[in-house]
Amino acid sequence: PQTIYLSDYTPFGWTVESVHLTFRLAPTATRVISKIRFTPTPNAPKQAFFLHGEALTPIRCTIDGQQITPTFTDTGLTCDVPDTAFDWEAEVEISPATNTALEGLYMSNGMYCTQCEAEGFRKITFYPDRPDVMATFTVRIEGAEPVLLSNGNPIAQGDGWAEWHDPWPKPAYLFALVAGDLINHPDRFTTQSGRDVELNIWVRPGDQDKCAFGMEALKKSMKWDEDVYGREYDLDIFNIVAVDDFNMGAMENKGLNVFNSSCVLASPDTSTDLNFERIEAIIAHEYFHNWTGNRITCRDWFQLCLKEGLTVYRDSQFTADMRSEPVKRISDVIQLRARQFREDNGPLAHPVRPESFVEINNFYTATVYEKGAELIGMLKTLVGDDAYYKALDLYFTRHDGDAATIEDWLKVFEDATGRDLTQFKRWYSQAGTPRLSVSEAFTDGTYTVTFRQDTPPTPGQDVKDPRVIPIAVGLLNPNGDEVLPTTILEMTEVEQSFTFEGLATRPVPSILRGFSAPVILHRDSTNEERAFLLAHDTDPFNKWEAGRALARDGLIRMIRNGDAPDTSYLDSLTAVVRDDTLDPAFRALALGLPSQDDLAQTLFDMGNTPDPQAIWQALETLKQATAQHMQDLLPRIYAQYQVDGEYAPDAAQSGARALANAALGLLTRLDGGAQAQKQYDAADNMTQQLAAFACLLSAGNGDAATADFYDQWKHDRLVIDKWFTMQIVQADPDQAAAITRTLTAHPDFSMKNPNRFRATLGALAMNPAGFHHASGAGYAVLADWLIQLDPLNPQTTARMCSSFETWKRYDPDRQALIATQLDRILAQPGLSRDTREMVDRIRK
Ligand code: DPP
Ligand code: ZN
After folding, report:
1. Do 177 and 248 fall into the same domain?
2. Which of 202, 212, 633, 715 sees the fewest Cβ atoms within 10 Å?
3. Where is the Aminopeptidase N-like N-terminal domain (predicted)?
4. Residue 172 has pLDDT above 90, yes or no
5. What is the CATH number of the domain that holds 441?
6. Given this model, what pLDDT does residue 1 score?
7. How many Å apart are CA 714 and CA 692, to the nearest integer?
8. What is the 8-class DSSP label of residue 425?
């Protein structure tokens, strides 16, 4: 397979003036007729005329009405073309019903739908399928389905056909078509300049009572983007469609967003509080792409972070505004560490803007998305809020209608602020998570803090240059009063000191407030100081972080030295949980512990070989000790934070439920699940039911609930996904692989539905002690199924290979077991390019 390089970028030699597509839908023989007007682009580099095309059966091709015979290859066609403008016409046949890769035009439960990002349009017809070729599309759909949708505005329709026109030039990856027996949940929105927009969420019959929440989220997003970024919607209609079989979360096609049904359908009975929050965020994310992604798109796929990092940043701002800013920040950092730091510290590490790839689908990663968003946050911190919005205004005016680059993006900030961002750009080009170590001195009222940055080598990048790091710092005096409010230190050197004068006493520093940069902070700190910050820090993130550091330190000592749980940590934690002036959601987060994966990486960084079983055991012991330590408090907290009255998925109610359910998890360790059974029996929403179900499973008391849950929900695919997942995540590590294998034999298991596959095989990796079981059974069951899925759905297979990415941390026996599985995958005949690239990179 061919490697594509950023440095090889060449503009396409032609401009596409307009595209007319006709679809004659039929499950295994859809005809696609394309009429495209090409004009040579003046001064473009000389090149042969090439159109992408894969898995297409060509019927005919003409240029200016004359039949031609192109040269076809696996990836497209070439042919001779006139020197002047010409009309291209082609007819091809495709088979949506047998398209299990879910890329291009495919069928899901009898409905036609498309997924074209990144390179799916070439499976629909011959086209210059690259994001810098932007054109206006007119689409005619002929089919018996009652609902026929495409991008833009509807222009005409009749019995068995509909026509759509999208006035906004767009790349082919934003093309979409949906046809099916669908029901809409309609609404309207009036934009700030008075445009009346028709809104619809389209779903399969039976799902229409799960649309109201998504619709509210859409309207809130539209309003928020006007208020905060001055961005208004630009068509007369905005459609969202829920699709059951979908590789990603959702897709921002112009005017026709297509969603994985798990990311849009919501009801209190079937969705948890976390589901509601995630759905709100994803609806916002896809809507925000209308400006950051669609109106301004990417020149090439190396620039993916241009739209994704910025749009993730925007959706996190939205969630912070709708809910709680500190809770959102803490949750985002937990995710960043769990997914992006893990990636950045392993064989799949790559820059936020990669410089080469084999398969672009493998670069829709936590690094491009989540670290990409952190870079936007750092830029905003460095230039300040006013300059940030000024730069964004300039970005929107200067680049509207463009296929832009990271250079364009940074230039806007340089022009708007007068800053030189040359050094900041290293964040886009250098992979790896910087380690930031801290040393301190205090003499004669002057406090000096010295930072040093080091980034370990990553694949292909041995040496790293220092980056600019915004370090948010506050200082507290020993009474717990803040003597220096949050101040941004701008670090640019490998090693750099900052001084603070006129202090009466040695201060306690609160460093990296709000997690102001995606780095790993190393600071020799005492547990007294951490407990002090947990009690007194005015920065909610660092208050939480102090508790997390205490917990991590205690766990590491339990694992390395066989220490008992740290009672001073338990005292500090109890004080936080007891403090009713603190947000319940914050207290629930404080009760969370570092993940098994986080502890494994920490141990590895300290020069230890992590033992997954010992890590799991230490967490169990600490949870048990916490439950005992808080045994008087837990019943009070559990009772006090029960929510009465009508269910609402808002921040207040979900925070209360999160705290009560965290208490229930600990109570279960004391009562064997008696309270959890009561909650399970009485639950009238999924948050309460699922939390109780998890407790019963973890207590080894889940058989009755497992049967009951299935019986109650067997008609609902999204709830049954939770049923699959929960049994594996909560399994005893000795049983996890066997339970996974048993569940893959369940009649409701399906390889063809990515949600169900992830709910099962993806869940195993969420039980690390089970997945990394010394027997190798976890590795074997995952590899067996990846091998089976690859011929059907390479994209989802390749993504899930990342379960193996941490293998080099482990002992030689486990490494050998994993290597055997990786080699077995690589030896499969006809292995997809997607999976081969991933496993090759991991195996190195
Ligand atoms: N649909 C995916 C997202 O919104 C890819 N663009 O991130
Ligand atoms: Zn996105």
Report:
1. no
2. 715
3. 92-174
4. yes
5. 2.60.40.1840
6. 80
7. 18
8. T
Burial of 740 from C-beta contacts in 10 A (0-12 / 13-18 / 19+): buried
Sign of torsion over alpha carbons 160, 166, 172, 174: negative
Of the residues 218, 245, 267, the one at which a domain ends: 267
Encode pLDDT of 273-308 as tens digits: 999 999 999 999 999 999 999 999 999 999 999 999
Of 159, 181, 203, the one marking the end of a domain is 181
Ligand showing the shortest atom-to-Cα distance for residue 248: 1
Average pLDDT over residues 119-145: 98
Helix, coil or strand: residue 240: strand
In total, how many domains does the chain have?
4
Residue nearest to atom 1 of ligand 1 (CA): 251
Tell me the pTM. 0.99
Q: Is residue 308 part of a domain?
A: yes
**For 725-748, how does the pLDDT look when each residue is reduced to its tens digit (9 = 90+)?**
999 999 999 999 999 999 999 999
- Do residues 133 and 19 both lie within one domain? yes
Number of helical (H) and strand (E) elements in the chain, helices listed first: 30, 31
State which residues form the domain around 310: 297-429
- Residue 641, in any domain of the structure: no
pLDDT in tens, 375-390: 999 999 999 999 999 9
> Would you say 588 and 544 are in contact if contact means Cβ atoms under 8 Å apart?
no
Q: Supply 102's token pair.
A: 């879910």
Structural element, H or E, at residue 793:
none
Task: For residue 218, give every residue at least 6 positions away whose Cβ sits within 8 Å of its Cβ, in sequence order, or none.
Answer: 187, 189, 199, 201, 238, 240, 283, 287
Average pLDDT, the chain: 98
Which residues make Cβ contacts (< 8 Å) with residue 827, sequence separation at least 6?
Answer: none
Q: Look at ligand 1, atom 5, and give the residue with the nearest C-alpha.
A: 251
Contacts of 313 (CB under 8 A, 6+ apart): 372, 373, 376, 377
Q: Same structural domain for residues 302 and 440?
A: no
User: Which one is catalytic: 280, 286, 308, 805?
Assistant: 286
Instruction: Name the token pair of 514.
Output: 């709000």
Distance in angstroms (rounded) separating the CA atoms of residues 351 and 461 = 10
Question: Who surrounds ion ligand 2 at CB < 5 A?
Answer: 308, 311
Report the relative pairing of strands 403-404 and 297-298 from DSSP bridges: parallel
